[in-house]
Amino acid sequence: MTLKEMEKELALTCIQSEYEDKEVTVVYTSDLLSDVLANADDNALLVTIQAHKNTVAVGSLKGSPAIIICNDRPVPDDMISAAASEKIAVYTTQENQYTVSGKLYTLLNGKK
Amino acid sequence: MHSCLSPCGDLLMSPKTIVETLVSKNIKLAALTDHNTSLDTPAFASCCKKHNIAALYGMEAQTSEELHVLTLFADEKTALDFCAGWYDLLPNVINKPDKTGDQVYVDENDDIVGEVEKYLITSASVSLDELAKQVHKLGGIVIPAHVDRPAFSMTSQLGCVVDGDWDALEFVKPDAAPELLPSAYPVTTSSDAHYIEHIGRRAFDLDIGEVPLLDSNGNTNLEAVRAGLSKRIVEPLKK
């Protein structure tokens, strides 16, 4: 599944679209950036409510293709511009981290 | 303030340059608080003592809740001892200077003494309450940092400003403090300077009366600082 396919499947709102459409292979869900740094796999797409530019810095270190901000948290402009310069897609959704993670898990691991 | 040791701090922020800037701005009391480390405090101590600036030594610690807390001691030795134990509790994530910035500490002449291996913007496996307990046991001061900011703060991590054994609460916008305060606390501000030009912004006056700010060894009198903080207590808004 590519980022664009994921955006459609999960009905996400893309608020930072300067990115290269990549395959989503691994996802990490956490609201502690230090936990992401210590435990997320490289290239993991991030699911979180931490809507600030520090999340982009961590995503950049991990090689994340995208960040999904849950619960419709407002995203500040400096986060969007930081993500644009790192070519990391940023999406928002009104759904919470559990729901988004469940949907991604199902899509990546096949429906039973 | 941060020095060149914080990965996000400007390399020009050496203790020597910081202190020269403090002198030029007539600042009498200043704290060096790098992210999760105090390794630049010996150079800071040496430079401050040359210019009779009262220094506080500590760090901007990141607790397991992923919020920032200022720990302040009167002497660099206590700060260094505390930071040595704290470093062991940071996760073993190695810094990549090309991606996240340099983490070098220097002497009072700007010569590099060493480099910190672990990435410093991570959380130690110690809670906010436990950190406060440990710092107070060593006679230090505990101030949760920028509690009203949307990242790495009580508000972002706990949802609100919480009561606890804090010597003060640091706000970016202190005018909004009464709305957020759970109980009465001294309120402070700080420059959180990462660049020379930010040193001294959001400075405040500390009323210490007639008590000398420095002791005979040139160390800062923490009791005078505490007494000054007690005159900055803000009452929460009655709901």
Overview of the molecule:
The complex is a heterodimer of chains A (about 110) and B (about 240). Chain A has helices at about 5-10, 35-40, 55-60, 75-85, 95-110; strands spanning about 15, 25-30, 45-50, 65-70, 90. Chain A has about 110 residues and is of the alpha/beta class. In chain A, strands 1-5-4-3-2 form a five-stranded mixed beta sheet, sandwiched between helices. The radius of gyration of chain A is 12 Å and the shape is globular. Chain B has one domain: Alpha-Beta Barrel (TIM Barrel), CATH 3.20.20. In chain B, about 25% of the residues lie in helices and about 15% in strands. Chain B starts with 14 loop residues before the first helix and ends in a 5-residue tail after the last strand. The model of chain B has no long low-confidence stretch (mean pLDDT about 95). The interface between A and B is medium-sized, with 14 and 15 residues.
What's the shape of chain B? globular
Give the rounded overall mean pLDDT of chain A. Answer: 95
Fourth-level CATH superfamily of chain A: HprK N-terminal domain-like
Strand order of the largest sheet of chain B: 1-2-3-6
* Helix percentage of chain B: 25-40%
Per the CATH scheme, the topology name of chain A is Udp-n-acetylmuramoylalanyl-d-glutamate--2,6- Diaminopimelate Ligase, Chain: A, domain 1
CATH class categorisation of chain B: Alpha Beta
Determine the number of helices of chain A (DSSP H or I, runs of at least 4 residues). Answer: 5
Q: What is the helix/strand order of chain B?
A: HEHEEHHEEHEHEHEHE
CATH third-tier fold name of chain B: TIM Barrel
Class per helix and strand makeup of chain B: alpha/beta
In terms of DSSP E residues, the strand content of chain A is 15-25%
Looking at the overall shape, the CATH architecture of chain A is 3-Layer(aba) Sandwich
**How many β-strand stretches of chain A?**
5
Number of domains of chain B: 1
CATH class of chain A: Alpha Beta
Computed over alpha carbons, the radius of gyration of chain B is 17 Å
